[in-house]
Amino acid sequence: MDSSPRAADHESGPQSGNQPAGNGLAGVRRVDYSGDGLVESDVAASPYLQARDWVDAAVAASKERDDVPEPTAISVATVDVSGTPDVRTVLMRFFDERGPGFVTNLGSAKSEHLQANPRVAAALTWPAIYRAIRFRGTAELVGRDEVEDYFDSRPYGSRLSAWASDQSRPAADRHELELKWQEALERFPDHGGEHDVPVPDFWGGWRIVCDEVEFWAGRRNRLHDRIVFRRTGDGDLADAASWTRLRLQP
Ligand SMILES: Cc1cc2nc3c(=O)[nH]c(=O)nc-3n(C[C@H](O)[C@H](O)[C@H](O)COP(=O)(O)O)c2cc1C
């Protein structure tokens, strides 16, 4: 893959150069996307295999270069009870044939949204390697065993923060948070064990059971590739027979 972002000099015509003044973004460098693209003959048989390949490539790239810093950072969009969308970034902590998953506070705004309306969309975006994956589907709670295994692997201080944060609720100031963290530290002393800090009841994970998975690959002149898998059967992401594939215009 040609992996270095290309600046304006690779894009031809009057659009070349920095963004025109007047859009509030003067000085933003125009980058032409010169990735490998994605052609039908190279697409994996199932959305799982294709996503696995790209996630693994992004994780590998993050170890080799500085411009793919959090390869599993995923934007998750929900809607609140009034139908108003919201979006935030979390880290994808699970990914297998069942779909991408993340951990969070089960009383947070996002969890409240998903409890009321489990329809969800998410996107992994890797601008430096000209790739993105979009997922649409329905959220379901990750099993308690998986959540506990993951929680126990977190650094001690992060496990305490799960107890200290009533996520998405107001706090008086920074001091209040640090006090709550200190209280958690005194309640669950560090003996160096993975079970020193229990998993809070109000903490867990969500998995996206997908109906649609899109692979976007940035190409020259903004003539990008978009290959989308849409669900046609009941199988998981690895069951090729449960998906149909099509190309969308960029
Ligand atoms: C790179 C990055 C990773 C994050 N990872 C998580 C995460 O794994 N879980 C989480 O609950 N919040 C995570 N956050 C914080 C969320 O973006 C968000 O602030 C928080 O979950 C509250 O969102 P909500 O009020 O919409 O529920 C992360 C933020 C960033 C920028």
From TrEMBL:
- Listed PANTHER family: PYRIDOXINE-5'-PHOSPHATE OXIDASE, PYRIDOXINE-5-PHOSPHATE OXIDASE
Q: Which UniProt keywords apply?
A: Flavoprotein, FMN, Oxidoreductase
InterPro entries named in the record = Pyridox_Oxase, Pyridox_Oxase_CS, Pyridox_Oxase_N, Pyridoxamine_oxidase_dimer_C, Split_barrel_FMN-bd
Question: Which family, according to UniProt?
Answer: Belongs to the pyridoxamine 5'-phosphate oxidase family.
Pyridoxine 5'-phosphate oxidase dimerisation C-terminal domain location is 203-250
Q: Which residues bind substrate?
A: R30, V31, D32, Y33, R93, Y150, R154, S158, R222, L223, H224
Reported EC number(s) for this entry are 1.4.3.5
Q: Which Pfam families match?
A: PNP_phzG_C (PF10590), PNPOx_N (PF01243)
Q: Give the residue ranges for region: Disordered.
A: 1-29
| Gene Ontology molecular function | FMN binding; pyridoxamine phosphate oxidase activity
Instruction: Note how many cofactor molecules are bound and how.
Output: Binds 1 FMN per subunit.
Return the PROSITE patterns for the record.
PYRIDOX_OXIDASE
Which cofactor is essential here? FMN
The answer to keyword Flavoprotein applying to this record is yes
User: Could you mention a single GO BP entry for this protein?
Assistant: pyridoxine biosynthetic process
* Residues covered by the Pyridoxamine 5'-phosphate oxidase N-terminal domain: 66-184
Q: What is this protein called?
A: Pyridoxamine 5'-phosphate oxidase
* Binding-site residues for FMN, renumbered to this chain: K110, Q167, S168, W216, R226
